Amino acid sequence: MHPSIPEQTKGKKRRPKKRLGQSLVEFTILLPLLMMMLSGLVEFGLALNHYLDLVDTAREVSRYSADDDPIHDDTTAAFILYNGLFYARALNYTKYNLGQARQLTLDEDTDDLVVSIFAVTGRTVTARYPPAFTDSDVARPTCVGQPNGGEMGWRSYCNHASKFSSADVTNLLAPLPSLPANTGVVLVEIFYDYNMVLGLPWITAVVNDPIELHAYSLYPNVASEPTPTP
Q1: Handedness of CA 64, 74, 191, 42 (dihedral sign)
Q2: Percent of the chain, pLDDT > 70?
Q3: What DSSP string describes 138-195?
Q4: What is the pTM assigned to this prediction?
Q5: C-alpha closest to that of 154 among 108, 120, 186, 107
Q6: Are strands 183-194 and 154-155 parallel, antiparallel or unpaired?
Q7: Which domain holds residue 38?
Q8: Is residue 183, in this structure, part of any structural domain at all?
Q9: Structurally, how many domains does the chain consist of?
Q10: Mean per-residue pLDDT over the chain, rounded
C-alpha cells in the first residue's frame, strides 16, 4: 500500500466538515430573514381572510337590499326619496352578518358602511339616492350634524365616503350587456380598519397599521328603477 493513501483519505474527510460549518453560518444569517418573510406572510394571510369576509358580507347585504325599497315610505308607499328604515335594515344586516358568521365588528369611530342607490336610464346613472342632507339621527351619534347622502352615499358612521361617483358607476355598468338599459342598482361598500395581529416592527415599517380594507358589491334594485312618474 502506498503511504500517501491514508493522508489523502484523511484530507477528504475534512472537507464535509468545512462545508457543514459554512452551511450553519449561512443558515444562521438567513434565519432572521426567513422569519421576517414568514411573519409577513402570516400577517398578509390574516388580512386577506378579513378582506374576503368583507367581500362576502358586501355581497350578502347587496342581495338582501335588492328586494327592499329605499325611496318609498314603508307604511304609505309614498315617494319620499329617503326611506331611512331601508338603510337601517342594511346596517343591521351588515352587523349581524359580520358578527354571527365572521366574528368581525364595525368600529363606529373608524369603520363604515356606505350604501348608494342609483336610477339608471339608457345605461347612464340619472339619479343617486339618498339626496344630500345633514344627518340628525341620534342612533348614530358619529353622524349627527355631518353631511350625508348625495355623491358621498349614505354613511352609517360618517367616517368614509363612497369611492364611486355616479360617473364611475355608469362606467362599471357599461360593459354589462345583460343588464337592462333602464334599471335600479344598489351599491354596498364596507370600510374596515384591519389592526395587525402580529404588528411586528419590520412589517409596520413598510405597511401602515391599521390597514384600511374596502369591499363593495353592486346588485339590481327593482324599487329604484326609473319610471315616468314617481
Answers
A1: negative
A2: 87
A3: TTSGGGTT-EESGGG-EESSSS---S--HHHHHHHHTT-TTS-SSEEEEEEEEEEEE-
A4: 0.83
A5: 186
A6: unpaired
A7: 22-224
A8: yes
A9: 1
A10: 88
- Tell me 123's DSSP state: T
- For residue 90, the SS3 value is helix
Which residue matches cell numbers 390574516?
A: 46
The pLDDT value recorded for residue 198 is 83
Residue length of the chain: 230
**Looking at the domain assignment, is residue 3 inside a domain?**
no
Angle (CA) 200-104-197 rounded to 5° is: 10
Nine cell digits for residue 106: 364595525
Pairing of strands 183-194, 211-220: antiparallel
pLDDT in tens, 96-134: 999 886 789 999 999 999 999 999 998 899 999 999 999
What distances in angstroms separate CA 171 from CA 80, 175, 197, one per listed residue? 28, 8, 37
Tell me, yes or no, whether 76 lies in a domain.
yes
Q: What is the pLDDT of residues 165-204, one digit of tens each?
A: 999 999 999 888 788 888 999 999 999 999 988 878 888 8
Q: Assign 106 to helix, strand or coil.
A: coil
pLDDT of residue 27: 66
- Segment 201-218, tens digit of pLDDT: 888 888 888 999 999 999
Please state the separation of Cα 200 from the chain's center in Å. 23
Look up cell 358580507; give the residue: 57
The grid coordinates listed for 121 are 336610464
Q: What is the pLDDT of residue 165?
A: 97
Residue 230 in any domain: the answer is no
